[in-house]
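Entry, Tuesday afternoon. Goal for today is a structural model of the target with pyrroloquinoline quinone bound, before we commit to ordering more compound. Inputs were pasted exactly as handed over by J.K., no edits. I checked the ligand SMILES twice against the vendor sheet because last time a stereocentre got dropped in transcription.
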Amino acid sequence: MTQQPVRLSREDFEARLRRIGEERYHDKHPFHHRLHSGQCTPDQVRAWVINRYMYQSRIPMKDAALLSRCEDPTLRRIWRSRIEDHDGSAERPGGIERWLKLAAAVGLDRDYVASAGGVLPATRFAVESYVRFVRERSLLEAIASSLTELFAPKIHTKRIAGLLEHYDFANEDSISYFRNRLDEAPKDVAFGLTYVLDHANTAEKQEAAAAALTFKTDVLWAMLDALYSAYVEPGHIPPGAWRPGKGLRA
Ligand SMILES: O=C(O)c1cc(C(=O)O)c2c(n1)C(=O)C(=O)c1cc(C(=O)O)[nH]c1-2
C-alpha cells in the first residue's frame, strides 16, 4: 500500500524547505569552493561570469512570466520590484548593469557577455527550463522555486569576502552586484516564504512546493557541473562555447 503524504505543520514544512537548501544548494558545489577560495584561474572566473550572465538575464523574464499569470494586483505590485531590481531604471542602474560591470572588471567585453554568445549548452538548457517551469506550473510552485534565495545571502557574503581577498579585479565597484543583492534578497524571500507557507495548505501542495524548490536547486547545480566539466576538469569545451582568449575587452 502506498502511503498518503501527511500535511506538515507550518514550522515543520518551513524546516523541510530549509533542509532542501542545506542538502542541495549550490554553495556546496566544488566550483564555488574553488571560486571563493581563490583557486580559480582568471579564465575560469571569466567562464563563470559569462555563463552566470545567462541566468541573470533570464531572471526578470521569468518574473515577467510569473506576473503575466498573476490576477492579484497586490501580488503583482510586490513581485514587480524584482524586475526593477534587475533591469534598473533610467536613473538607477540595475543588477544586469552591475553584472556587466563585473564582466568588464574581469577583462571581458561587455557586449560579448551581453550577447550570451559563448554560453555553454547545458547552462542554456538549465536556465530555459527554469523560465519554462515558472511559466507553466502553478503560481505556488513558481513562487516556491524562487526560494533558493533563502540561501543566497550566505553565499553572497562568502563570495564578497573571497573575491576581495583573493582576486586583483575585485573591489567595491566591481563586486557591487553582490552587495546590492544582500539588500534586495531579504525582502523578496520574506515575501516568497510567507506566500508559500500560507498557500501550501494541503499535503499535496506542500509536496509540490518542496519539489519546485528541489527542481531549482538542480537548475543551479547543473549550471556549475557544466562549467566545471568545460573549464576545470576534464576541460571538454563544447563546440561553440566560449574559449579563453575570446570576447576580451579591448
Ligand atoms: O549568486 C548566487 O548564488 C545566487 C543564487 C540565486 C538563487 O539561489 O537562485 C539567485 C541569485 N544569486 C541572484 O543574484 C538573484 O538575483 C536571484 C534571483 C533568483 C530567483 O530565483 O528569482 N535567484 C537568484
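The chain has one domain: 10-231.
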